[in-house]
Amino acid sequence: MAGMTAPAPWSSYVALGDSFTEGLWDVVDDDARPDPEMSAWATANPHAPETRWLHLRGWADLLAGHLADRRPEGESVRYANLAVRGKLLPAVVTEQVPVALELEPDLVSLIAGGNDILRPSVDVDAIADRLEDAVVRLREAGIAVLLATGVDAKGSMLISSTRTRVGIFNSHIWSIARRHDAMVLDVWGMRSLHDLRMWSGDRIHLVADGHRRVAQAALVGLGQEPDDAAWDDPLTPLVVPVRDRVTSDAAWFREHAYPWATRRLRGRSSGDTRQPKQPELVTVERRA
Q: How does pLDDT run across 250-264, given as a tens digit for each residue?
């Protein structure tokens, strides 16, 4: 447990990136939206206007809590999350990295590129260069940096065609980390994420258990002991009848894939007009 692990050396943490780090769809019901069905509704309606008022928690928020628990007695962690869904890597570097530098945190997670790689015309080497430039700026400011590999999309109807591009980008991630003494959250290597039950109805964003497991993987990437030794154990295999699978695939294409492709053709993003959910550093107290 946290009390038996080495103390976390970071007193402030800023998370940068896109929807992966923003926390879709780990929905936390609050006084504004107390509906117990809200999490399921949000998963089924990720682009409905009402979702902009939901309190979304994700792996980065959970990680901030874990780091706070590992601070010495009487100390806490200050945390900000600047990630916005739909952002491309150049926008993350241009819009979020300068703000992070102004906040002067001890630790930054910089995870982007997934939206870029979904575009067939992407230049993977070019976006890796942009990422490395950002890492250099952060490291020169004395900030510890956590990067992340892309997910292994083997078997995914939507994004398995990007697997080669993700693999090349991952190679860049490991090389950038080695050159600049950064750390890596190895999402590609997570066996548990091959299970569809870790993913929301859109098959691109994690559900609560997926975020919980990624937060544990982030601790490992930071050189910390995980709270849960079974954090990446696969779920018991689920047998899905062929008819149910075909029905599910058809519903997914109609409700998620087609609207997603339509927005891309129109040059729109799910993050258009959205602001970061936590733009300022706030204190996360130790729970233990």
A: 555 555 454 555 555
Helix (H) or strand (E) holding 44: helix 38-44
In Å, how far are 110, 158, 178 from 135, measured between CA atoms?
A: 8, 30, 11
Q: In the chain, at which residue ranges do the beta strands (DSSP E only) sit?
A: 12-17, 26-28, 55-57, 77-81, 107-111, 144-148, 183-185, 278-284
pLDDT tens figures, 169-178: 999 999 999 9
Residue 22: closest CA among 146, 109, 99, 141: 109
CA torsion angle 195 198 201 204 (round to 10)? -90
- pLDDT tens-digit profile of 61-117? 999 999 999 998 889 999 999 999 889 999 999 999 999 999 999 999 999 999 999
- Structure tokens, 98: 């300068």
Distance between CA atoms of residues 259 and 54, nearest Å: 21
Task: Give span(s): CATH 3.40.50.1110, the chain.
Answer: 2-23+58-236
Average pLDDT over every residue of 121-132 = 96
**Which CATH number fits the domain 2-23+58-236, given the four candidates 1.50.10.140, 3.30.450.20, 3.40.50.1110, 3.40.50.10420?**
3.40.50.1110
Locate 4 and state its tokens. 């038996």
Question: How does pLDDT run across 226-245, given as a tens digit for each residue?
Answer: 999 999 998 777 766 666 55
Per the CB < 8 A criterion, the answer to whether 12 and 75 are in contact is: no
Contact 79/232 with Cβ under 8 angstroms? no
